[in-house]
Amino acid sequence: MAAAEFRAFQDYVKGRAKAQAEFDGKPQAGLGPFVLIGADRDSALLERLALVAKSIEGAGLSSISHGALSSVATTPTSAVLICANAAAESKEIVQVGGTAVVYVRSSGEREAWACDISSHEFEALAGTDEQIAADFSRLVRVLRCPPAPCLGPGSYFVSLTYPDVSQAMCKGAEWTPPPWVKSGKGDRPLHDGLEVRADLLQSQDPAFVLSQLALVRRQSEGLPIIFTVRSRIQGGNFPNEEAPFWQLTMIGLRFGVEYVDVEAGWSREGRHTFLAMAKRTHPGLRVIGSFHEIQRPLSAVTDQELCSLFTECAYGPQGSVDIVKVVGRAESAQCSIRVNQCAVQMRPHLPDSVNCVIAICTTEAGRLSRALNVMLGPTPVAHPSLPGVAAPGQLSALEIEGIRQTLGLPLNPFRGPDRDIDEAAKRQTSTDKDFKPPERTV
Ligand SMILES: O=C1C[C@@](O)(C(=O)O)C[C@@H](O)[C@@H]1O
Questions:
Q1: Which of 90, 158, 231, 428 has the most beta carbons within 10 angstroms of its beta carbon?
Q2: How large is the average pLDDT for residues 411-419?
Q3: Residue 19 buriedness (CB in 10 A; 0-12 / 13-18 / 19+)
Q4: Domain end marker among 144, 166, 193
Q5: What are the backbone dihedrals phi and psi of residue 158, each rounded to the nearest 5 degrees, phi first?
């Protein structure tokens, strides 16, 4: 990691430094120049991508210069600085706050020197110039532009459960979006976001995770990526240890995901430090503050405890959490109603930065909560073509709309009639899928 803030956070995670970053609510203020590094053989690619970065409205990049890494300190913050083959250079760049150093490469081996001195990484997957430019623009926007409108009520994001997403994506010249992205009619994307559950991937090796993210972004039809690392105690498959969680979450930032999920079960100090760093260096990033209260049934959680979970999810530097998500474990339909009511009650007391709330329950008894959540915030969903559901009781968007219809609730008022939810889901339901809960540790 090269940018000063990234290095400081890595040191913090390794226990070598105290939390120090403060976030002043003006994330743009700390941005430095935008640096592209890469091997000599990729210099034409670097030149092309510098032009792409410069053309992005709102990114504040008005010129391109060429030079050595050591010239970063004197490069204007409005410049894209191209440093081809910076291998032999000093690491002075680590001292320059707010500077994004993007390691650009065409497919192939990652070079250790470039990984070491970069804060971000862009692999240009095979494809047309337009496809590569579209992928790169997304990284630039997260790093330089204000965030896109936040996912909100009525929207659905699919929780991907592939151990390897290449199972669902063709790697050939003609990239075909999978059915959880594009409807049979092919007019508009079916969902509003794609959640990459890094803990469910077959490997958490940085190179593998980065390549999975690159595939998803290429196939996403512009849908934002939500990057999640869920530990076992939180209903996922990752160890219940905080430092490895931050390290893997940093891989999501390194790639340039649009949303990151931060579980409120981790230490306040860790969350505060991470959020301060992440929001300062990624003005386009959105944060979902989550809590999974699933080790005990909701009947064992008092109203006061349940309400305070919403507040805890919003904890962080001012303005840093965009969405609050509380997940409980239901034993009856009553639990769904309770979690929903609690969300409605707490909503006005959350910080202004919180755009919306997600309040759902796991288990089959909790399905009602998913149908009710449609009015509160984005709803995580399954899809029949995925290998399984991400949580017990998770439903597809079509199933959720079906429940609303059956119960006589207003059909999703945020989705126009032109928005086909899913043809494939009419043939098979997500409930046919097996869910193998990770082993319980408590
Ligand atoms: O937090 C959530 C909610 C979820 O656990 C569910 O119950 O649908 C599924 C997860 O993938 C997601 O990150």
A1: 158
A2: 77
A3: middle
A4: 144
A5: -85, 130
Q: Which of 66, 86, 84 has its CA nearest to residue 75?
A: 66
The ipTM is: 0.99
State the closest ligand 1 atom to the C-alpha of 381, by its place in the atom list counted from 1.
8
Domain that holds residue 73: 4-144
Domain count, the chain: 2
What is the C-alpha separation between 197 and 342, in angstroms, rounded? 27
161 lies in the same domain as 278: yes
Domain CATH code at residue 128? 3.40.50
Domain boundary among 109, 144, 179: 144
390: CA distance to ligand 1 center in Å? 6
Cα of 85 vs centre of ligand 1, distance in Å, is 42
- Given a cut of 90, whether residue 439 has pLDDT beyond it is no
Output the residue whose Cα is nearest ligand 1's atom 10.
390
More confident residue, 190 or 321: 321
Local structure of 95: helix, strand or coil = helix
On whether both 311 and 396 belong to a single domain, the answer is yes
Distance 391 CA to ligand 1 centre (A): 6
**Does residue 275 have a pLDDT over 60?**
yes
Instruction: Please name the residue whose Cα sits nearest to atom 6 of ligand 1.
Output: 391
Distance CA 363, CA 11 (A): 39
The pLDDT confidence band at residue 426, using thresholds 50, 70 and 90, is low
Report the nearest-CA residue for atom 13 of ligand 1: 228
Q: For residue range 84-106, what is the model confidence (pLDDT) as tens digits?
A: 877 666 555 445 667 899 999 99
The residue with greater pLDDT, 377 or 92, is 377
Residues 72 and 207 in one domain: no
For residue 149, being part of any structural domain is answered with: no
Q: Please enumerate in sequence order all residues whose Cβ is within 8 A of that of 44, keeping only pairs 6 or more positions apart, or say none.
A: none
pLDDT in tens, 61-71: 999 999 888 88
Residues with CB under 6 A from ligand 1: 159, 195, 197, 228, 235, 261, 290, 325, 327, 360, 362, 380, 390-391, 394
- Same-domain check for residues 20 and 165: no
In contact, 91 and 117? CB cutoff 8 Å: yes
